[in-house]
Task: structure prediction
Amino acid sequence: MSSNTNICLIGGSGFIGTELAAQLISAGKNIRVLSRDLRKMKSLRVVPTVDIHQVDPHDETALTQAFTNQDVVINLVGILNQSVGKGGTFAEAHTELARNIAAASKKAGVKQIIQISSLHADAESGPSEYLRTKGQACDILRDSGVPLTIFCPSVVFGNGDGLFTRFANLLHAMPFMPLACADARFAPVYVGDVARQIKQAIDDPEFIGKSINLCGPEVFTLREIVQYTADVLEIKRPIIGLPNGIAKIQAWVMEWVPGKPFSRDNYNSMQVDSVCEDSDSRQPTSVQKIVPTYLGKMNRQSRLQHYRELARRDERG
Ligand SMILES: NC(=O)c1ccc[n+]([C@@H]2O[C@H](COP(=O)([O-])OP(=O)(O)OC[C@H]3O[C@@H](n4cnc5c(N)ncnc54)[C@H](OP(=O)(O)O)[C@@H]3O)[C@@H](O)[C@H]2O)c1
Result:
C-alpha cells in the first residue's frame, strides 16, 4: 500500500483535471485543488476529501505554502493559445510555471511531481512554441531532482472535450467546413484512460523517472474526425481541405477572432502527426464507444425530443 495519500492538482479545474479529481476521490485520496478562480470549482466544494485553494501558481511563495504536507503534485496547466495578462504566454504558463513548481516542491518536500505534457513536446525539435515550451517544462522538472513522472498524451477526448465537441459546435454553425491540416493524423485517447494512468503513477514507484506517451487504439486524420462528428450528429456538411498556403492565412485570421479558435502556432503543432509508434502507449477505449454517448445528445433526433419535452412542460404550465 502506497503512502502517497495527499495529492495536489494545479490546473485541476480543467477538462482532464475534473476527470482525474473524480477518480482520485473514488480511490480515497485526499486532494487539494489549486485554481486561480474558485468559481470554477463549485462541484468539488461539497466533497469532504477535497480541499480547494485559490492560488496564483505563478506566485512561488503561495505555491510553496499550498504544497505543504502534499505527497504528490500534479501539473495539469497547459494553454493552446497565448493571451494578454499575467501568466498568459507559453513561456509563463509552461516554462516559468515549471520553474516555480520545481522550487516550491523542493522547499515543501514533495515526494513526486507528475507533469502532464503533450505528445512530441521537445525543447529543441518541437515544431511549435506550444510543444517547445512544454518540452522545456519537462527539462526543468527533470533537473529539479524531485522524482518525476511525465505523461505525453495525443489529443484527449471525452464529454466537454476541445475536439469532437468543438467540431460539433462548428458543424452546427457552418454550412460547410473549411479544414486546415485535413490530413494531419491523431490517435485520440479517452480522458478516463488518461486519468487512470495518472492515478496508477501515484501508487506505483515503477512510474518514477518515466516519460509515458498516451494514445488511443485508432488513428484518424483530422478530416475523418470531422466526418465522424458529422455522422454522429446526423448532419451533412461538405468538408473542404485547405491547401497549406490558405490554411496559414486562415490560422492568422483566426488569431483575431475572440477565443482564438485556431492560430499559426496550432498550425505548426499539426505539422507532426500526433500518433504513438509503440503499442505499449495505446490505451483501450475507442472513440466509437464514447463519443456517441455525449455527441449523440446534440443530434437532430435528440434535439427534437428535447424541444418536445419543453413544449409539454409549457402546456402543463
Ligand atoms: N486536452 C487535450 O486534448 C490535451 C492533449 C495533450 C496534452 N494536454 C495537456 O494536458 C493538460 C490538461 O489539459 P486540459 O485539456 O485539462 O486543459 P484545460 O481544460 O484548459 O485546463 C487547464 C487548467 O490550467 C489552468 N490554467 C490555464 N491557463 C493558465 C495560466 N496561464 N496560468 C496558470 N494556470 C492556467 C486553468 O485552471 P484555473 O483557471 O482553475 O487556474 C485550467 O483549468 C495541459 O497541460 C494540456 O497541455 C491536453
